Amino acid sequence: MALLPTHRPRALRDAILQGLDGGRTADQLVERIQRRWWTHRYARALADGELISPVGVAIALVRPSVDCPDPMCEDGVTLDTGHPCRTCEQRSEDRRHGRKPQDHDTAPAPQWWECQGPGCTAAGKGFKPGDGLCRQCQPRAEAAEARKATAALAAEIEAAGEAERLRQAIRWTRMLEDAYTEHAQRTQTAQERTEAERRAAADAAQVRLLRQQLLHEHPELAAYAQDET
Predict the structure, then answer these.
(1) Cβ–Cβ contacts within 10 Å for residue 68, how many?
(2) Which domain holds residue 191?
(3) Do 161 and 223 lie in a common domain?
């Protein structure tokens, strides 16, 4: 940075924008710069006084790789998986055996695409992700899906609890109904017994009244009435 001119050349600004294509973040671009600074021996060239073109080195540090057509390849590593790039491995194998790689001829040309995230205006150049989201929107979408799944699970748990409370209420209602029915039956039996005793007492009183009336009208029957008692 100390060797770069104060006014950044347009070529360097364009290279930085190209480095951010395909959904790359600024942090990922910083990692690319740091990795290439050491693996491409620019640090040693600077120490040995052999770093001739600082602008050219800066462009080489930030621009996308020109050795692989896969936009997700980051210097031989697939960015979204962290695994070695199969395309780079195949091209290296082809070079070792003197075969001409055909990847540039057969692979579809990268195209510009726009992020489909709500309110997002990010754009990238390369192969559009399957979900149509940039790398900033993907974590938010995953978090939203996780919240939705959590809410759905909570709703299921609440529904299950409500169903259990309903079953408990039904069982309790049935128990009360059985108790009320049994109590009504017992009360009805007691009332019927009381009514029968009342009618028997009334009948007995009526019989005594008729007997007294009969004796009053026919005293000669008193002896018979005493015999019956």
Answers:
(1) 22
(2) 141-228
(3) yes
